[in-house]
């Protein structure tokens, strides 16, 4: 008995599937570009609107909706750069943010090293407790800090805000740095000790360069939190150390809210963050790939 073997011919459905498969690879990049474009438009639209508002007059802002200034003005920026309460508030913010970042890293680095290298009673519970501090709203600590600083005369000082922000930034810094330090083999420590390195010399000249990406990421997050935090910064300062985020909440005049002035202050507030991201962008990208973030 002979079995006839029919030649295999592609079906219509198979042909359509193959055609669709040939088309899809070309459509995917287009769809991806469209989604990315919409995403960036969604992200950049508020920033564009803020910049445009900063070059408008208050009358134009509240009277009509325009995509660009009909009456271009630099008056809002002139007021900020020539008014002491405005430009000094930027300096105040930069001072306590810098202090906070330095203190947070100085405290968190040894603590993260201890968590990554040693095991002791309650280490995991202590590590979790540190994270719970980061999850607590800043408003919870307003009254304790206010009474404590009032007793010691620290109200309206830069160091007061810097230390208060450490309650949130140190736990976050320990958590991030511990992940980076775990990635450094213990044999590096042992080799350094055999070579005669003291612990401070090993820590400063060997270990810190190895985790500089993690330090960059940690400094970035400490900066971001301390720069935008409002409740503690506004409560613990009155005049001399008032930060920009607090000054922006008090922009009122006889004519009402000065919208253009707020927009100009907001644009200038974005500048330090952009500069920080620009300088540590390589460390941040490497940190996101290597560490806990």
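Sequence proposed for the structure above (293 residues):
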């Amino acid at each position: 008995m002979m079995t006839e073997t029919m030649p295999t011919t592609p079906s219509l459905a198979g042909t359509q599937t193959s055609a669709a498969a040939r088309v899809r690879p070309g459509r995917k990049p287009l769809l991806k570009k469209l989604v990315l474009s919409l995403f960036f438009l969604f992200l950049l639209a508020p920033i564009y609107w803020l910049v445009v508002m900063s070059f408008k007059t208050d009358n134009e802002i509240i009277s009509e909706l325009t995509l660009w200034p009909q009456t271009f003005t630099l008056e809002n920026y002139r007021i900020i750069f020539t008014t002491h309460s405005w430009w000094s508030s930027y300096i105040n913010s930069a001072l306590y943010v810098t202090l906070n970042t330095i203190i947070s890293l100085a405290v968190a680095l040894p603590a993260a090293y201890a968590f990554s290298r040693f095991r002791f009673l309650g280490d995991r519970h202590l590590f979790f407790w540190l994270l719970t501090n980061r999850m607590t709203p800043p408003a919870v600590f307003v009254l304790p800090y206010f009474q404590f600083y009032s007793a010691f005369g620290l109200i309206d000082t830069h160091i007061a805000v810097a230390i208060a922000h450490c309650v949130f930034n140190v736990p976050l810094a320990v958590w991030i740095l511990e992940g980076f330090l775990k990635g450094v083999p213990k044999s590096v420590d042992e080799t350094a000790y055999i070579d005669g390195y003291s612990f401070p010399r090993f820590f400063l000249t060997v270990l810190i360069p190895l985790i500089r990406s993690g330090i960059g990421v940690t400094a970035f997050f400490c900066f971001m939190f301390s720069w935008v935090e409002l409740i503690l910064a506004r409560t613990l300062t009155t005049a001399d150390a008032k930060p920009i985020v607090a000054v922006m909440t008090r922009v009122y005049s006889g004519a009402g809210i000065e919208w253009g002035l707020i927009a100009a202050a907001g644009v200038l507030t974005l500048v330090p963050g952009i500069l920080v991201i620009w300088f540590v962008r390589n460390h941040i990208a490497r940190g996101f790939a290597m560490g806990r973030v």
